[in-house]
Structures are given as C-alpha cells and as structure tokens.
Design brief:
7 helices, TIM Barrel, about 280 residues, globular, alpha/beta
Length: about 280
C-alpha cells in the first residue's frame, strides 16, 4: 500500500491526507495512547459547528456529502492489512506502536452522514473483534432516530462515544463552539447518547483565550452541569480533559494558548470532587 507514505507520524500531525486516501487516515493519538485509524466522513470540510480551536482547514458550515461505501470498505480493508502485516508502525514513535482503535471523527460532524448506520455496519464487518471503535461527536444530531440506531449498534460492538462539552453555558458554547445550542439541549442529547451507548465519555478542550484562562464561573457552570446529570442518574463514564496540542486553523488561532499542566490538573481535581473520573491530556 504505497499511499501510506514514509514520513514520521507524531501527535502534532493529524492530517487527514497523510495516507493519500479519501476516508481513512492514521493518527498517533495522545488521548488514546497509540495509533488510531481515523474515518473521515466529512472530506468536504463541512461541520454544523465551528469550534475556534478546530484544526480543519477551510472549514465550512454543512453536513457530510454522500459516502462511497465501496471505496470506504476498500480503503479500510487495505489499511487494516497494512497496519497488521506491513511496515507502517516504523513511522510511529516506539512508545505508540500499538493499534488502539478505529475512530469516526475527521473534518466535520460524522453523525451528519446519511450513511452513518451503514458505516458502522461496514466497520463491524472488517475490524478485529478486540479492536475498539470510537465515535467522536459534538452530539448535536443524537436526537435523530438513525443516529440513535447507529449508537445502539456501536454499543453492541463494545464501542464508545466521546461527546463534546467544552463549556456548559450558552454564552460559553457560542464563544468556543460557535453554535446556538443550549445546555438543556446538550443535556438532552447526552442523556440519549448514554441510553443508547452507556460507554459515553465527555470530551472537553480547556485553553486560554487572549491569555485569559477559563474563569471560576466557567468551571462552576461545568461542575453544576455535571452535578445536575448525576442527580438525575445520567452518568458519563468520565471526562477526557485535553489542552491545545495542535494549532487551530480558524480565525481565532492567534488568540488561543495552552494552559499549564498545573492549571489543567487543578480543574481536573475539582471535577473529581464532584464524583466523575478524569483523564488529562496536555
């Protein structure tokens, strides 16, 4: 598979074009702790949100285009073979030379693809039984019956959902995610996600804007959101709290900066005190 290329992969390089394929790309994931096979259902760079830290170039508003399932199957089958039997891992730092998962992520919201369920079934047919399947989503389309059907199938495959929650106030979501959603809508979608796939995690990007870290009100809003979930028996598996590892390609990029390990851990400690586990990735 000569399209895989020869350059060394790092956690800072998440290019969807690194394998020369339309839908399939490799990632050395700092959060997963190994190599992830990415599935990009949004090669048109279209998403219904516009997170200001997003690394997708030429991001536009929209949804996934029609998916060529035949091509996707060919690419995934070939890439899995290369990962397992070729010399691909020589491009990976020694400490990350393990195949961790297949991740539905890419350059936009994957659940916006009309063929979302078909993609899940295709992956189920091809992936090794012990290989984890992850959906990385902003959660905004989970009220759709077709998406919930896909999540229930994901659960049958021992898959997991990483559900975005970067801020827990309406103003914070508008600022960071450039969306008009509300905490009530996020809560409703999250509850549906957990009902369909109990192995659902919250993923939270925490960073400074104009050299100002998230304030106490941002933290309190987030913690109050978690407390409300727990009080009503809605419990995510935990929090994936991560910082800025790669540069944003949005207009706000010059205004963004990473927090220190101490700042990240201080917030993680407050979350744990609420009763939810946290994994921190800088």
């Amino acid at each position: 598979m000569n399209s895989v290329g020869n350059s060394l992969l790092t956690t800072a390089n998440h290019s969807r074009n690194s394998a020369g394929l339309r839908y399939v790309y490799p990632v050395v994931s700092r959060r997963a702790g190994g190599v992830s096979i990415g599935i990009n259902l949004n090669p048109d760079n279209a998403c219904n949100w516009r997170c200001i830290y997003c690394q997708v170039p030429d991001l536009v508003r929209g949804s996934a285009p029609p998916i060529d399932l035949v091509l996707l199957e060919k690419e995934l089958r070939g890439f899995l073979h290369e990962m397992q039997h070729g010399d691909f891992m020589q491009r990976v730092p020694p400490e990350a030379r393990r195949l961790n998962d297949i991740a539905l992520s890419g350059n936009g919201e994957p659940t916006s693809a009309r063929e979302f369920n078909d993609v899940i079934e295709l992956i189920a047919k091809l992936k090794p039984a012990d290989l984890k399947l992850v959906l990385i989503t902003n959660g905004s389309l989970i009220q759709r019956d077709s998406v919930q059907q896909g999540l229930r199938r994901l659960a049958q495959l021992n898959g997991e959902v990483w559900f975005k929650l970067d801020r827990a106030s309406e103003a914070g979501m508008a600022l960071v995610n450039d969306t008009k959603t509300t905490p009530a809508a996020v809560r409703r979608n999250l509850a549906a996600a957990i009902a369909c796939c109990p192995n659902t995690w919250l993923q939270t990007c925490w960073f400074a804007l104009d050299d100002i870290p998230p304030g106490k009100q941002d933290e309190d809003d987030y913690l109050d959101f978690l407390r409300g979930l727990l009080q009503d028996g809605i419990k995510p598996q935990g929090i994936l709290l991560y910082g800025l590892a790669r540069p944003s390609l949005q207009a706000e990029a010059p205004r963004l900066s990473a927090l220190s390990p101490e700042q990240m851990e201080a917030f993680a400690t407050r979350i744990r005190e609420v009763g939810v586990g946290v994994r921190v990735a800088l």
